[in-house]
Amino acid sequence: MKKLLFAYLLLIGLFVLYVYQYQSDNTTNSQWSDYELRGTIDENYVMVTFQSGIDYWKRALKGFEDAAEALNVSVEYRGATQYDVDEQITVLEQVIAKKPAGIAVSAMHPVALNDVINKAIDADIPIVTFDADAPDSNAHSFLGTDNFQAGVVAAHKMAELIHERGEIGIVTHPKQLNHLERTRGFRETLASEYPHMEVVSLTDGRGDQMTSKEVVDEMIRDYPDLKGVFASEANGGVGVGQSVLEQQKKDEIHIISFDTDKGTLDMVKEGVISATLAQGTWKMGYWSLQHLFHLQHGLASKMEAGTSLPRFVDTGVTIVTKENVDDFYPNE
Amino acid sequence: MKKLLFAYLLLIGLFVLYVYQYQSDNTTNSQWSDYELRGTIDENYVMVTFQSGIDYWKRALKGFEDAAEALNVSVEYRGATQYDVDEQITVLEQVIAKKPAGIAVSAMHPVALNDVINKAIDADIPIVTFDADAPDSNAHSFLGTDNFQAGVVAAHKMAELIHERGEIGIVTHPKQLNHLERTRGFRETLASEYPHMEVVSLTDGRGDQMTSKEVVDEMIRDYPDLKGVFASEANGGVGVGQSVLEQQKKDEIHIISFDTDKGTLDMVKEGVISATLAQGTWKMGYWSLQHLFHLQHGLASKMEAGTSLPRFVDTGVTIVTKENVDDFYPNE
């Protein structure tokens, strides 16, 4: 009889424990709001690029993946293997056919992808552009570098390096809008804020290492007092570095370049390139997924009439010099 | 004996149930990553403005509150009651003393608040600026309207309204940077894209309704063929509306104004003001809190060296016309 009593008591005890646990579970759930920032693993978001093999995208994809972990959703990476706009259109069409939860695309052409981007919108698939925009498409937002601002940052850094005084050359790629903007930001800042710095030469390096080296060879001959060169993209920067090395002007001419491919980082480490501007590629990926998640979950319409998304997110640039260059080599 | 056996069986059954539930709880937990987007209710984020009573802040605060619900944290609203920079500094100091989880501040002066903003940074309190920036402070990011872009939007809308042809006047407030930028975006867009539209008059309305009315009275006398007026802020816009009404030019002159206070919305409803530009104030609040949360939880350093925050988020503008004006009246 005592044993039976004991068993009953234990039973009641466990029942109480069970009820208690059930209730505390409910408390936890009720703390969750209607628009919690947590998805499900079967929600699949896709990042689409071009030249899918290059290192440049790795940090963007890492940001996309990190956001997926924070939001508890899945991601996938697809890209045109070549620098080929038709291939990117085909890849996008394949991705759209699978009806993913959202697409982040870096548009290799500012106009050619408009139709396929709008096709995603028509199929109710959230889509944003990152790194390279398609401004006339219906993509919900763009996350990337404000290139004019990046040029402003480069100008201030150059002023610091040459103590606000001296002749400057620019090697750019005048056919691409992002390079024009970088150059404009650089020149306008020098013109308005640094009266003792003068842009004496503005040349076309065609985004090519060899061409850039040649135009700077000539620039150094024409302007023996040159104190600095701003290269608006990475191949040009390496070409400028080779020219300056060959002409033994390493200690006289400060170079500021763009992006963080291995060739550029090595030259920063060796002190040939004084500084390079790293784009916020991780942030592009991370905040792209945040935007897509907000669209997919209709958080916009739940919370506020219209869209809850900023039109443009400037992911900014970071100045990379000898001091912090090691942080920018890929870990693999 | 049978009863005892039954009791034991029940006991074992309940125990199994208990263990099962315990495990399923653990499974739920393990789905959460290290950097989940979920805080605790005792995390208190503070929004600080100036002229705290005005309607303008309501949507920003709503965005801040909505993000707090999504992220499971608490928020508080504080503001200088007056348009007084010393009062705002005092309020900020009081807020900093309480060591909140983060601060979003609309800086009523672009420089005067730098010290107190940096004081928050020094005390390890995350701080961002929204709506009005303090660009030389150490605030982590700025979330607000790109005023140049807003001027571009206004120019395209004006072109549509007057069929890309005619004389235009501008009433602005040339002492404030945001108004200069709006005017610059408007003028540069007309100059570069609309050869048959001409800005014939650019006047200072001093941010005042009466002054703006008077300058436009004169403008209409001087330019009887005037087809449109762009007012870069709301008081000016209402003044322009009064002038146009009084001179019975309502059907001849299109007005584009800025912001969505009641006076402006009423004039849009009556067809006196053709369009006004609503700033993304809800988004400013919502994404400010997202940024502060990322800083407070050190998501930056967990995920990526450096900061995970965009430098600048352009919350954009929405064109408000007769068609959608009702969505912009406050609900209360």
UniProtKB/TrEMBL annotation, chains A, B:
UniProt entry keywords in alphabetical sequence: Signal
Boundaries of every Periplasmic binding protein domain copy: 47-294
Primary location class: other
Keyword Protease set for record: no
Keyword Signal: yes
Family matches, as Gene3D superfamilies: 3.40.50.2300
Subcellular location, record wording: Cell envelope
Entry's family note: Belongs to the bacterial solute-binding protein 2 family.
Protein name: Substrate-binding domain-containing protein
